[in-house]
Structures are given as structure tokens and as C-alpha cells.
Design a protein that fits this description.
Blueprint (H helix, E strand, L loop, with lengths): L13 E6 L2 E7 L2 H13 L2 H18 L8 H13 L4 H21 L39 H10 L3 H11 L5 H5 L6 E2 L4 E4 L8 E4 L2 H15 L24 H14 L6 H14 L4 H8 L8 H4 L3 H12 L5 H4 L9
Antiparallel strand pairs: 1-2, 3-4, 4-5
């Protein structure tokens, strides 16, 4: 077992190792950070491990400080640097969250050496909790953007392959995250139910998702006409057909670059998550139950759909009318029924 001996006054160095565009290992010169990343890898999803490793690398590379010298002032300096670089509040907060999680774990490991969390000071008394003590930047309530129907039509018109069409449909109609879509393997498909087994969702949450008949048809066209018998040793469904990555599983970056390229051809600015946002919004507006939507899309919390409900006043009006259908105040108030004579 590695000894947790701090390397005092030595700036933190983090190296990420990639194989076929996928991060497979992290090496650092700090046993404390090694411990933290091992803990994340074992207890959370592989995507969280990758994101934390990347965000911590950015943080420590930017500051060039030893672990024991990270304090509130240095975190503020990091925020200022990221702001000057044009990073959004969402990205800055996400990177601060990785640092905060690190120091929360360090406090559990060695509370004497790491008594404080520089990002979000530990609250010992819930009654005195004050959000203003954290460094997270305030953000307006996020209302997810959606893609207009005419924009979707224009975008699909320029997609040249059934592979790309299928991936977009999976992110839109089946509401997959981009990392979930590219990771699908042959063994994950259940044809009789048009279902997919998502093994490594956010928070390491497994779930079953479904394809509509159009997505399923597009998938079969891709497998029959493009993938065929190529690359039988590759378990992933979606592979690259060009460039140095030819024959390898398609990466998240490659798919996002493709989205950027084809969106630009029709004068659009799109990113992968917009398709998922659009799909979830459509399910909400069509009246699918919130519990079923959360199970389908991999949301744990009951309030996770609130941003989507805020998108449409029409939705609120419709739900209000449905709720009032069980009441009949006409007799109580001695009023004529709707449409009756006054």
C-alpha cells in the first residue's frame, strides 16, 4: 500500500495517459492525489474520474503550487485566470468542484494537515450555513436550450453517413449523453425490445433506454451498409472510418468535431448536449410522466426536470387544466357550466 507522504514544497504534476483517444491512466507526484483519484475511480463513474483528473491537471498546472500551499487566495487567482481565458462560469465552477472534492477527501484522511476546504469551507453547524462562504460563481437559473425543428431538418440533411445520423438520433430521441452514445457495444443491444443497456451512465448509474423505430432503422442501415463485417475485433458499435483513428472506436471528441463541422455547413452552432436537452424537453411537453423520464435519461433527483418544465407556459397551462378536471365548482357556486347562458 502506498504511503501517504506529502512531498512538501514540490509543485503538483499530473500526467494523463491516453489510448485510442481514451484516457486510461493518471500519474501524479502526490500520493494524496493518487489516493483521491483511485477513490473516485472506484466509487463513481469512469467519466467522473476522467473529468476530475483533467480539471485537477488544469488547476495545478495553472497555479504551479505544492498541495500544502493551496489556499483560498490561490483558488481565487485560478478563477481570475480562467475568467481571463474566457471560460464560462459553469466550467469554472466544475473545476472548482473537483478541487473541493479533493480537499474534502484530504480532510478525512489527514484533518491536521488539511483542516480546511479552500473552495467551500466545511460547515459544522447547519444552522449557520452560508452559501456566500464558497467561491463558486453565481449563475442564473439554467434553462436548457432546444434545437428548432427547421434547424434539426437542415442539420440532418447534410449528415453524410448512417453512423452519424444514428448517433444524433440516439442523443436526441433516446436522450443519451454523447459519452454514452459512442460507448455502446454490440452486447448492449436488445433487438426484440429496441432497447440499449447503458452500463456506465453519469454517477455510475446503469439503465435501460429505448429506441424508436426510426432510430432502430437507422442503426440497422449503418450496420448493414457501413460497418458490415469490418473490424470484427472491435466491440463498440461506432467506429472511425478515416484518418489515423480508422478502425478504432469513435471518440467523444471526434463526434463533437463532426457535429461542429456539419452544423457550420448550415450556419448553426450546435453541441452534443443540445440534442439530449431537446429530446428531454419534447418528452416533458408530450406529457410523459416525470418518474419515467428520469429513469429513461438517468436523472436521480426529483427536481432534475424543473429546468425543462420552465421552458413552456403552455405546459403549465395544460397541466393546470388537467388538474382542474377533477373539480366541479359549478353547483357550489351556482354558476352555469362553461358555454352555458349567463
Amino acid at each position: 500500500m502506498t504511503s501517504l507522504t506529502l512531498m512538501v514544497d514540490q509543485p503538483i504534476q499530473i500526467a494523463l495517459e491516453y489510448q485510442q483517444s481514451t484516457m486510461i491512466a493518471v500519474t501524479t507526484n502526490s500520493p494524496y492525489i493518487d489516493h483521491f483519484l483511485r477513490k473516485v475511480k472506484m466509487s463513481q463513474s469512469i467519466h467522473t474520474w476522467i473529468n476530475y483528473a483533467h480539471d485537477l491537471k488544469v488547476f495545478f498546472t495553472t497555479l504551479g503550487l505544492p498541495l500544502e500551499r493551496i489556499d483560498r487566495q490561490s483558488c481565487l487567482s485560478f478563477m481570475e485566470d480562467q475568467d481571463r481565458a474566457g471560460l464560462s462560469s459553469l466550467t469554472i465552477n466544475r473545476r472548482l468542484a473537483a478541487v473541493s472534492s479533493l480537499f474534502t477527501e484530504l480532510n478525512l484522511l489527514d484533518p491536521v494537515r488539511f483542516p480546511h476546504n479552500p473552495v467551500a469551507p466545511l460547515q459544522r453547524n447547519r444552522e449557520t450555513r452560508k452559501r456566500s462562504r464558497s467561491l463558486y460563481r453565481r449563475q442564473p437559473d439554467r434553462v436548457p436550450d432546444i434545437i428548432a425543428e427547421d434547424s434539426l431538418q437542415a442539420f440532418f440533411a447534410v449528415l453524410p453517413t448512417w453512423r452519424d445520423r444514428t448517433l444524433i438520433l440516439l442523443m436526441w430521441i433516446s436522450c443519451l449523453r454523447i459519452s454514452e452514445a459512442v460507448a455502446i457495444r454490440f452486447e448492449d443491444i436488445e433487438c426484440s425490445h429496441r432497447s440499449l443497456h447503458i452500463r456506465h451512465g453519469k454517477g455510475n448509474l446503469e439503465r435501460i433506454v429505448y429506441m424508436d423505430r426510426y432510430t432502430f432503422a437507422a442503426l440497422n442501415k449503418y450496420l448493414d451498409e457501413e460497418r458490415g463485417s469490418l473490424y470484427p475485433e472491435i466491440d463498440e458499435i461506432f467506429v472511425a472510418f478515416k484518418g489515423q483513428a480508422r478502425g478504432r472506436p469513435l471518440s467523444v471528441n471526434a463526434l463533437q468535431h463532426a457535429i461542429d463541422y456539419y452544423a457550420a455547413k448550415v450556419g448553426l452552432s450546435l453541441h452534443a448536449h443540445l440534442f439530449r436537452h431537446t429530446g428531454i424537453t419534447q418528452l416533458v411537453l408530450q406529457g410523459m410522466s416525470e418518474s419515467a423520464i428520469r429513469k429513461l435519461v438517468g436523472h436521480r433527483h426529483a427536481d432534475s426536470l424543473l429546468p425543462y418544465l420552465h421552458l413552456s407556459d403552455t405546459y403549465v397551462a395544460t397541466e393546470f387544466e388537467k388538474a382542474q378536471a377533477v373539480f366541479s365548482p359549478t353547483t357550489l357556486l351556482q354558476l352555469p357550466p362553461p358555454g352555458g347562458n349567463r
